Amino acid sequence: KAGVTQTPRYLIKTRGQQVTLSCSPISGHRSVSWYQQTPGQGLQFLFEYFSETQRNKGNFPGRFSGRQFSNSRSEMNVSTLELGDSALYLCASTPIGLRQMNTEAFFGQGTRLTVV
Amino acid sequence: ELKVEQNPLFLSMQEGKNYTIYCNYSTTSDRLYWYRQDPGKSLESLFVLLSNGAVKQEGRLMASLDTKARLSTLHITAAVHDLSATYFCAVDRSGGSNYKLTFGKGTLLTVNP
């Protein structure tokens, strides 16, 4: 069973540019969440999509946005990049609806974004 | 606002020793998760704790959950170098659907020969 796939793995962008990251969840998982990991703030929840709808959003500025497609793949976009956006961006997929006893979120390898 | 606090944040221990990492959280939740992260890598799920009194063990690691005290512990027995990593606890804020986790700051564990 394939895991969560994130592309690209590494990105270097310049301040002011925009960037799009992609996440393909585990087959059959319909929920995709995004997290930002930085040394200073740790792991922080960005937003979650389910059935192409954003259901929850963390405390991030509007420059951070996302979407989900009908095949559950998700993209997140960051516009007008700032140096502080340099981070590891992780996505996680969850088998919502199955209500398994040991259900959990499965994380991808992440995209390392460096803003220069 | 839910807060998840781990301590210690840094732990250096010798092989063969035992130690415990603590995870306190500020609001009611009966779902807590432990993850491991190696440098530059993603999060690997270690334990899923779903109810008060839950105890799970895998190799040299044992996790427990006390929902009344809002406390989870990750106990390391007879540490070995391969356990060196950062360990995170996380609390589910989505009522059981696991799509909105709040993480602790992580505990960087270094096991020295």
Write a structural description.
The complex is a heterodimer of chains A (116) and B (113). With 116 residues, chain A is mainly beta. Chain A has no helices and eleven strands. Chain A has strands at 5-7, 10-13, 19-24, 31-38, 42-50, 53-57, 64-68, 74-78, 87-94, 106-107, 111-115. In chain A, strands 2, 4, 5, 6, 9, 10 and 11 form a seven-stranded mixed beta sheet that branches. A four-stranded antiparallel beta sheet of chain A has the order 1-3-8-7, with no helix packed on it. In chain A, strand 5 (42-50) and strand 6 form a beta hairpin. The N and C termini of chain A lie far apart (37 Å). The mean pLDDT of chain A is 91. Chain B has 113 residues and is mainly beta. Helices cover 0% and strands 55% of the residues of chain B. Chain B is built from no helices and eleven strands. In chain B, strands 2, 4, 5, 9, 10 and 11 form a six-stranded mixed beta sheet that branches. A five-stranded antiparallel beta sheet of chain B has the order 1-3-8-7-6, with no helix packed on it. Classes of the chains: A mainly beta (116), B mainly beta (113). Chains A and B meet through strand 4, strand 5, strand 9 and strand 10 of A and strand 5 and strand 10 of B.
Question: Strands, helices and their partners?
Answer:
The complex is a heterodimer of chains A (116) and B (113).
Chain A: E1 5-7, E2 10-13, E3 19-24, E4 31-38, E5 42-50, E6 53-57, E7 64-68, E8 74-78, E9 87-94, E10 106-107, E11 111-115
Chain B: E1 4-7, E2 10-14, E3 19-25, E4 32-37, E5 43-49, E6 55-58, E7 61-66, E8 71-76, E9 85-92, E10 101-103, E11 107-112
Parallel strand pairs in B: 2-11
Antiparallel strand pairs in B: 1-3, 3-8, 4-5, 4-9, 6-7, 7-8, 9-10, 9-11
